[in-house]
Amino acid sequence: MAYYNRQSLVLWNCQECHGTYPMKISDKTPDNTDCPYCNNIKLLPAFNDLRTVYPELAAKWSENKNFFYFYSISLSCTLFLALRRRSSSSAA
Ligand SMILES: [Zn+2]
What we know:
The radius of gyration is 20 Å and the shape is flat. The chain folds into two domains: 60 residues, no CATH class; 31 residues. The chain is an alpha+beta fold. 40% of the residues lie in helices and 11% in strands. A two-stranded antiparallel ribbon has the order 1-2. Strand 1 and strand 2 form a beta hairpin. The structure holds zinc ion.
């Protein structure tokens, strides 16, 4: 049998969206107003994703071009941070 205190991080099930999310017992409210999916803070596929909420907008989404667009941005940021880390460590 596990024991928890008010600061324990535990998993909760939302009755509204059926998502599961971690939250401290002390932060939990009796209603579902703290659910990160219902409040659109976190993404829950088939509940608050673009395709479910705005299907007409999602139909215009360019799957391939957005993949390469975000992949290239992510790669650029990684290279920038690596070069910055390298130059700052060599300067020190
Ligand atoms: Zn919810």
